Amino acid sequence: MNRVLLVDDDVELCEMLGEYLTAEGFEVELKHDGESGVEAALGGEVDAVVLDIMLPGQSGLEALRQIRQQSLMPVLMLTAKGDDVDRIVGLELGADDYLPKPCNPRELVARLRAVLRRAAPTKLGEVLQIGEAVLRPSERLAEWAGEPLALTSTEFNLLEVLMRSAGHVVSKNDLSERALGHPLARYDRSVDVHISNLRRKLSNLDDGRSPIQTVRGVGYQYIEHR
Fold first, then answer.
1. In which region does residue 140 sit, left (phi positive, over 0), alpha (psi from -120 to 50) or beta (all else)?
2. Which domains does the chain have, with CATH numbers?
3. In this structure, are residues 108 and 22 in contact, taking their beta carbons and an 8 Å threshold?
């Protein structure tokens, strides 16, 4: 049973979503402010966090920043409908996914299951390596030039999809479905923001290019290199 932390200052909504998640087989902990949410998230007994951006005192974005300083656990943000700026900032800070409020509980369950499924280690012992990049999917570990990469669950998934398709262009919709677990919505920039974060964590190739290249109007391609 996955343990989910739900952080939202709307007590009634929080309890309603908590009841729905419990009925769907999750173990749920509720918090209503950023400070206690961060403390609970880093307490070592949480598998994923659902975090509202609009919180009293410490904002959800600051709470996310503090969580990411110590943990790469899946974090799904709840954002005000149409608030693209906060949504993009949340993704840039390392959120794995987001849902606009008011959210459909069934959609929340589907998104949670998707990020948790993709964060779970696989039973395969394979190693993916292209040049300096090494992925160990069974351990959810990534390295560049022998040094560990601190990737969020979604960043790891994106890199794995791109490396498995190295030399070929992968569309943004395919990346969204395979790495985030849902089709890309119209005007959704989440894949672009995650790729931008991933590029910052990967070193450039010897010729100065990023190993992840943009193919305008189509998607992204991981360069085959030694």
1. left
2. 3-119 (3.40.50.2300), 128-222 (1.10.10.10)
3. no
**pLDDT (tens digit per residue) in 206-218:** 899 999 999 998 9
Residues 6+ apart with CB under 8 A from 220: 162, 169, 170, 172, 175, 195, 212, 213, 214
How big is the CA angle at 197 (ends 196 and 203), to the nearest 5 degrees? 90
pTM of the model: 0.83
Judged on CB neighbours under 10 Å (0-12, 13-18, 19+), 52 is buried
pLDDT digits (tens, 9 = 90+) for 6-45: 999 999 999 999 999 999 999 999 999 999 999 999 997 8
Q: Which residue has the tokens 């951006």?
A: 53
Q: Are 4 and 47 in contact (CB under 8 A)?
A: yes
